[in-house]
Each structure stands twice: as structure tokens, then as C-alpha cells.
Design goal:
mainly alpha; single chain; 22 helices; about 75% helix; two-stranded antiparallel sheet
């Protein structure tokens, strides 16, 4: 493993540099009223060029910027998920009314800064970079959650997000300081070598718990989920859709890299997978049970996202390459099924002001095409065959039952899958089995219309490519050198 200098690292950092240039361009255009309408197209072009640069970039295990980050295949995979999420959110944001036109430029810039921070999160190989990357994601997230400055709910969401986020970051930083005290270095590889011979399991347990507060907050893991429903409900709906996917992908990437680098050699002494298994069961159960009585669509989907985090943590409780593959496999399909459901919620909110489930009554007969794809997305989120959500859950449980370590967790996961059917099909019931003669059909913008269809179609057409995807994910992890 080679440490590259700052200058030599630049050629491997071109996608991030493209995002930086786009951020500067958007801020400059936003400050000049004549060029303000160009911020949307500039953001789109910048993200597309970043994707092209990412496509021609080659993964490497060499450490960039003298050991701060690594551009390996694991980072590349999660960067693609993050970039796809951000680009799709920006595309549909132009016609969305939840963010005022006068602040759209700042909104696009904040999305780009968060994307840059998430790119750093998935690549971080230094304790300082871990903290800086998480803060680069968190601070702009606080801003866009409250970007509708005249909306009381949006302001409240932002304030809660700041308070909870600052608390979680402080505790995580305390845990990182313990690691620095143990190793005398910020380099994760050096810290890992020191931890392998460190004999105080109590101290390392404290470090794991403190760090889980910060990482768990990012992915909405119980008991660090308390911000999620309030922020999701109060923030503009496009922001909610973005927060439900991209930061979670980055959070799982850093969780995988951190634990599989630092705590894998002393796993027999620490037994941290047992802690993850308990957290997984709690996260699934709390998310699903609290979702049962929700009437607000955004709050319901917030608790739904919490329950899916719990399901991905089921795989994380088993230490093996197959388990990490199943997390990545699940996250890939979760992106499509969750965003497609949120995009339908955006259409209903913008055109009908329908933020409550009761306000969806009868929409299935009025808007049959989009309603069909919404049902497909909900079926996938519930894990019903023959959707991608079902196959993703099967792979997670297959690895769990193969190891026979936490069979009780598999039972909890299956029970929670059954529970989730109830609240997902509350929406289906309102759409198809409740009458609403006052509902008039509203046009859907072409970008949003096709985003719903294309993203939702992945829940069925995945049959054509999932074996190749699974094989590619295995190769990605083998090439990282962590296994």
C-alpha cells in the first residue's frame, strides 16, 4: 500500500474536483441575478461530468493525499450510488414547489457540498478525515432541512437536526480521541495495528459505542433515530427523499470500512457483532411498530427507512465477505424502491397537497399508471416476491442462517417483514379502496413522471442483471484487500 503525495493524488481525485468547481460556479451564478436561472443546468452538467470522470477513474488501494483517503473499488461503488441519488433529486427539484425559487441556487449548492462530503466519507482512511467528512455532510444538511425559511415546520426540523447532530458528533469525536490516544496516530491502518495488541477490552468497547453514536445517527439506527421522523416531516419533501437514501449509503460505507479495518483482528475478544445484532433487532422493531399508527406519508416513510436500516444491520452482524456483499446488494435496490416511493409522494404533495394518507383516497383510479408503479415500489419495500426487495432480504437472511450465530435475529426480521405489510398497504387501501369524487387529475412533469417509472421498474427488471451485479460486488470487495 503506497502513500501518494498531494500533487500525485490529484489525478485520482478528478470527480471530486469537478464537484468543487461546480459548487463555486453555482455560488457565483446565484450571486448574480442575471445568471441565477442557470444554476439548475450548471448543477446537472457538473454532476454528469463528475460521473464521466468517475467512469474513467480506476480504483486503487494506494492511499491518496498522504494517507487521508483511498479510492478503492468499495469507495467507487458507493460514489456511484451517491451520485445517482443526487442527480435524480436535482433533476426533479426544478419543478418542485417545496423549495422556493429564490433559494434554489443555494439549495443546489448545498446538495453538491453534501455529495462532496459523502464522497469523502466513503473514502476516508484517517480519523481526522472521518470527522471532517461527516461534518461536511451534516452542516449543509442542517441548512437544507430548514431552507424554507418561512415554513415553521421546516425551521423546527432544522433546529432539531442541529441539536441532535451536534450531540452525536461530539460523542463520536470523543470516541475518535480515544483511538488517537491508544495509537498516537490518526491513520486508520496504524490504529488497527495498535488495537490488535491492545489489552483493555473495556476501553475499546467504549470506543465502539461512542463511534456508533456518530455513525448510527447518520444511518438512523435505534436509539439514534429520534431526529428522523421530525426532520423528514418538516423538511422540504425533496430534501427528505435525498436524506432517506444518500447519507445512509455513505454511512454504511464508512461503517463497513471502519469496523472491518479496526475491529476485525480482536473480534474474539470484543464480540461486537452481538451488539450490532441487538441494535439491528431494535432498529427494525422500533421502526415498524412506530410506523403502524402514522398518518403522515413522510413520517411513515421515515419509519420505513429506519426499519430498512435495521434489516441491513442484520447482515452487518455477521462478519464475512458475503454479508458485506448482501449489504451493498440491499442498498443498491433500496435506492430505487425508496426513491420511487418518495417521488410519487412528491407528485401527490405538489399537485394535490396530499401529505396525509387519507388525502390519497381514490388516486389509484384517477392516476392509474403512476399508482401502479407506486404499488410496485411499496411491494418491494415490504419484501414481497417477485420484487427486488424480496431477493435483497433473502440474501441477507441466507447469510444469517448459514452462519447459525443469530438465528433469533432471523426470526425477528421475518416477523418485522410481516408487520411492515400493514402500514405499506394502508397506502394501497387509500389509493384503490377508498372513494374520492372531488379528486381531479393533475398533470405530472415529464421528468418526475419518468423518474417514478424508471426507478420503480428496477423492482422487476432486476431479474435480468442481478446475478452479474452480485458477482461484481464480490469482485469489488476482493479488490479492496479488506478480506
Amino acid at each position: 500500500m503506497e502513500y501518494l503525495s498531494n500533487i500525485n493524488s490529484l489525478t485520482s481525485y478528478l470527480p471530486e474536483l469537478m464537484i468543487v468547481i461546480t459548487i463555486l460556479a453555482v455560488f457565483i451564478m446565484e450571486s448574480i441575478s442575471t445568471y441565477r436561472p442557470l444554476t439548475y443546468i450548471t448543477t446537472i452538467i457538473g454532476l454528469i461530468f463528475a460521473g464521466l470522470l468517475l467512469m474513467i477513474s480506476s480504483s486503487s488501494t494506494n492511499l491518496l493525499f498522504e494517507g487521508m483517503i483511498v479510492n478503492d473499488s468499495l469507495a467507487m461503488f458507493f460514489k456511484w450510488l451517491i451520485l445517482l441519488s443526487t442527480l435524480s433529486i436535482v433533476l426533479i427539484s426544478r419543478d418542485d414547489g417545496s423549495v422556493l425559487d429564490e433559494v434554489k441556487g443555494e439549495y443546489y449548492a448545498m446538495l453538491l457540498i453534501i455529495t462532496l462530503g459523502m464522497f469523502a466519507m466513503v473514502s476516508a482512511k484517517n480519523l481526522l478525515m472521518v470527522y471532517l467528512a461527516i461534518e461536511m455532510v451534516s452542516i449543509p444538511s442542517y441548512i437544507i432541512a430548514g431552507i424554507s425559511k418561512n415554513d415553521r415546520e421546516s425551521n423546527e426540523a432544522s433546529l432539531k437536526y442541529v441539536i441532535y447532530g451536534s450531540f452525536a458528533s461530539g460523542i463520536m469525536l470523543f470516541g475518535l480521541s480515544f483511538l488517537y490516544g491508544i495509537a498516537g496516530s490518526l491513520d486508520i491502518n496504524v490504529v488497527a495495528s495498535k488495537l490488535s495488541s491492545f489489552d483493555s477490552s473495556l476501553t475499546v468497547y467504549m470506543v465502539i459505542i461512542f463511534i456508533l453514536v456518530g455513525f448510527g445517527y447518520k444511518i438512523s439506527m435505534v436509539p439514534f433515530h429520534y431526529w428522523t421522523p421530525d426532520v423528514y416531516q418538516g423538511a422540504p419533501i425533496t430534501v427528505t427523499a435525498f436524506l432517506s437514501v444518500a447519507p445512509k449509503a455513505a454511512g454504511f460505507a464508512i461503517l463497513i470500512r471502519f469496523f472491518y479495518t479496526l475491529f476485525i483482528d480482536n473480534i474474539e475478544m470484543l464480540q461486537w457483532p452481538q451488539l450490532i445484532a441487538i441494535m439491528s433487532a431494535l432498529t427494525m422493531t422500533v421502526g415498524n411498530i412506530l410506523a403502524l399508527n402514522q398518518t403522515n406519508i413522510k413520517r411513515l416513510l421515515a419509519y420505513s427507512s429506519i426499519s430498512h436500516v435495521g434489516f441491513m444491520l442484520v447482515a452487518f452482524s455477521i462478519v464475512s465477505i458475503d454479508s458485506v456483499v448482501s449489504i451493498m446488494f440491499y442498498m443498491f435496490f433500496y435506492l430505487f424502491m425508496n426513491l420511487s416511493a418518495f417521488y410519487m409522494a412528491i407528485y401527490m404533495s405538489n399537485k394535490y397537497g396530499a401529505n396525509e394518507i387519507d388525502q390519497w383516497n381514490g388516486v389509484g383510479l384517477k392516476v392509474p399508471v403512476l399508482s401502479f408503479f407506486m404499488v410496485l415500489s411499496l411491494a418491494s419495500l415490504a419484501g414481497l416476491p417477485p420484487t427486488s426487495g424480496f431477493v435483497a432480504k433473502v440474501y441477507v437472511l441466507r447469510n444469517l442462517f448459514a452462519e447459525s450465530n443469530f438465528l433469533w435475529l432471523g426470526v425477528v426480521a421475518i416477523i418485522n417483514t410481516v408487520i411492515s405489510l400493514y402500514y405499506y398497504f394502508k397506502i394501497v387501501r387509500a389509493m384503490y379502496f377508498m372513494d374520492n369524487d372531488k379528486l381531479t387529475v393533475q398533470d405530472c412533469s415529464p421528468i418526475l413522471f419518468w423518474s417514478i417509472i424508471i426507478f420503480s421498474l428496477q423492482n422487476i427488471i432486476f431479474y435480468f442483471y442481478w446475478p452479474n451485479l452480485l458477482e461484481s460486488l464480490n469482485m469489488i470487495l476482493i479488490n479492496t484487500g479488506m478480506f
